[in-house]
Amino acid sequence: MTFEELGLDEPLLRALRDEGYAKPTPIQEKAIPMVLAGRDLVGVAQTGTGKTAAFALPIIQMLSKNKRSPVRWEARCLILTPTRELAAQIGDSFRAYGRHARLKQTVVFGGVGQNPQVNSLAKGVDVLIATPGRLLDLMEQGFVKLGWLEIFVLDEADRMLDMGFIRDVERIISALPEKRQTLFFSATMPSEVVRLSRRILTDPVDVSVAPSATTVELVDQKVYFVDRNDKFELLKQILKSEQVGKALVFARTKHGADRIARQLSRDHIPADAIHGNKSQGARTVSMANFRSGKTRVIIATDLAARGIDVDGITHVINYELPHEPETYIHRIGRTARAGASGSAVSFCDLDETIYLHDIERLTRQPISVVEEHALHSEIAHAAKRELEAGRTPRNVNPPHKRSGGNRGFRGGSRQYGGRSQGGYGRSQGGAGHGRGGASHASRPPSRGGSYGRRYSR
Asked: Is the pLDDT of residue 438 over 60?
């Protein structure tokens, strides 16, 4: 299959040749013809599958063929995405693929001043790429109106759920016209995401390139059982290996990410931390240094890392395992991109053994254990064997239980013996807004409207 056979026009084919793309990926083969046909679509695909081009290419073609001048403060296409980095990367993709098309686009997200974004919206745009918080803020001020929208793309829907944005997404959807084309993308399809898709899509075509719980086949996965206090020493040993090129290290908290980065820098291993408390300017500089190789190691939290799309990451290191097994899949998908191989290394202390057990149950494959290292924790390894045998290990206190909050297990208390497996993440209540609820469709918001709290992300 070629891009020509997918029905793309010559300006797009020329842009793809400029970018060095010769053959579509599986999701592009399946999605592009459906989008060009005007169908609503559900796309289930992990990061690194070519998903952005699967919607960007047909959108550029459709907007170019049906050319009309954008209306003041309006957008013809809205792409909603959870993080600033991902929004910026989608914007870069639209510029690259649309270099031979005369479409106006802008990207809006929090963490930076809004005035340049407002100025770019004043005369209307063809394509608006936005994060939920900043978009709601601009809508409330009357700087974004969506009554003339033709195409709506919800990207990374599962991560919107994880980050607590679903209600914000629903508020935005309530302002969209009922008649529109909707494209819905998610790496996984938990129940809340499925319900949202059913509310906002009309007779959608389903496109899936891999089961949602399938890990990247080219990733070599290993786990080290190690005491919590020995993790940093083990991290240093691994990073000093000649086999590690660019490494993305996952920490559970912002404070932890900063601490690891400082300690590595003191030990002459250049590292930066990326998380939500960093300014957008600092994050941009850190990512530029990482891409260029000036910084070899990035320490990131899960929320910040979702938008990281960097080629050449040789190692993903789970300094702390996530308590949601689906998050593990998102993490390791940052390596082994574009057919390259990659490694995922996980550190597992005693209290994290239940997380490792859940990850292996989800992926349906055991992760290879590295025992031959000086910091091996036999206590943690023994607890993992207890879980495999269906028994409850003693003295295991998972971090999410210690921290409290509302990010615990859904569906009641959960026993460690592997008997009942509940879902994970936040419970998102509240009624959704489907197409029938688009009460603002013909009446875009005025200044001072009530789209919910004002804040920037």
From this structure: no
336 or 258, which is more confident? Answer: 258
Shared domain for 104 and 163, answered yes or no, is yes
What are 131's two structure tokens?
Answer: 């994060």
Residue range(s) defining the domain that contains residue 391:
219-403
Does one domain contain both 259 and 182? no
Cα 292 to Cα 239, 297, 312, 353, 424: the distances in Å are 18, 12, 10, 36, 36
More confident residue, 334 or 91: 91
- Assigned token pair, 383: 């607890």
Task: For residue 448, name the pLDDT band (cuts at 50, 70, 90).
Answer: very low
Same domain, 279 and 397: yes
Asked if 338 and 48 touch (Cβ cutoff 8 Å), the reply is yes
The whole-angstrom separation of Cα 202 and Cα 64 is 24
Kindly tell me the sign of the dihedral angle through the C-alpha atoms of 305, 309, 310, 314.
positive
Task: Provide CB contacts within 8 A for 201, sequence distance 6+.
Answer: 40, 41, 42, 182, 184
Write the CATH number for 175: 3.40.50.300
Instruction: Specify the 3-state DSSP secondary structure of 60.
Output: helix
CA distance 143 to 123: 10
CB 102 within 8 A of CB 322: no
Amino acid identity, residue 131?
T
At 335-355, the pLDDT tens digits run 877 667 789 999 999 999 999
Global confidence as pTM: 0.62
pLDDT, residue 271, reads 95
Q: Say what the pLDDT of residue 218 is.
A: 74
The token pair that represents 360 in the structure block: 């292996």
Q: Are residues 178 and 267 in the same domain?
A: no
My answer on whether 339 and 250 are in the same domain is yes
Residue 431, token pair as written in the block: 């009624």
Say if residue 151 is in the same domain as residue 11: yes
Q: What is the DSSP letter of 367?
A: P
Strands 271-274 and 151-154: unpaired
263 in a domain, yes or no? yes
Reported as type and span, the H/E element at residue 125 is strand 125-130
Flag the least confident range among 76-85, 255-264, 400-409, 443-452. Answer: 443-452
pLDDT of residue 402: 65
Contacts of 406 (CB under 8 A, 6+ apart): 426, 427
